[in-house]
Amino acid sequence: MERKIAKDLLSIGAVFFRPQEPFTWASGIKSPVYCDNRLTLTAPAVRTDVETGLAELVRRYYPEAEALMGTSTAGIAHAAITAHLLGMPMGYVRSGAKDHGRQNQIEGRLEPGEKVVVVEDLISTGGSVIEVVNVLRGAGAQVLGVVSIFTYGMQKGLDRLAAADVVNHSLTNFDVIAQVAAEEGYIRSDDIARLIAFRNNPSDESWIHQNEVKA
């Protein structure tokens, strides 16, 4: 599954590598990868692979799950479709409480003690998904864990998830996508080491000048 989803994401540009011309994140960090898993929603074949894959992760790792909760906003559609496939209730968690109406932060019915799984599209440092988990726990939910489409596997993210007692299972990951990208000709094989160096320490830009092609 990891390789299949990796090929899917690369084929539609949902994960796009550009080690020769790095992207700049809002934080100022130079990155060789651009991720937009929302594009899976506009590609029916890929969308089917992703949602059936997420449903399989829930069945395999969280068989006792009673509801799915999407992260706002990227995880909402994936949670809805996956919950439909599983015949399961779903809802989502806003980034903040509404300032009108019932001022909800959690949308959808959530019963105290209900066993839920969070659906996220992408995990990097883990901060946003942990916030969602904390909101759900604060509302009395029993959060079994997280399913996601893609994870970087950054150490900061792994440490944060472990400290928050949050388990994540992803359809694919940075290492697999980098390998498949090289095999499929999206990047050069000698770019893999540069990509892994970035993943291991995003704030260290020395990877940019590794293995540069000489004129």
Task: Count the E strands.
Answer: 10
Roughly what is the average pLDDT, rounded to an integer?
A: 91
Q: Please tell me how large the radius of gyration is.
A: 18 Å
Q: Helices and strands, in N-to-C order?
A: HEEEEHEHEEEHEHEHH
> What spatial order of strands do you see in the largest sheet?
7-6-5-8-9-10
Q: Helix/strand/pairing class, anyone?
A: alpha/beta
Low-confidence parts lasting 5 or more residues at pLDDT below 50?
Answer: none
Dominant shape:
globular
- What is the strand content? 15-25%
How far apart lie the N and C ends? 39 Å
Taking the sheet with the most strands, its summary is: 6 strands, mixed
Explain this structure to me?
By secondary structure, this protein is an alpha/beta fold. 38% of the residues lie in helices and 21% in strands. The strands form three sheets. A six-stranded mixed β-sheet has the order 7-6-5-8-9-10, with helices on both faces. α1 (2-11) crosses α6 (174-183), α2 (44-61) packs across α3 (74-86) and α6 (174-183) packs antiparallel against α7. The N and C termini lie far apart (39 Å).
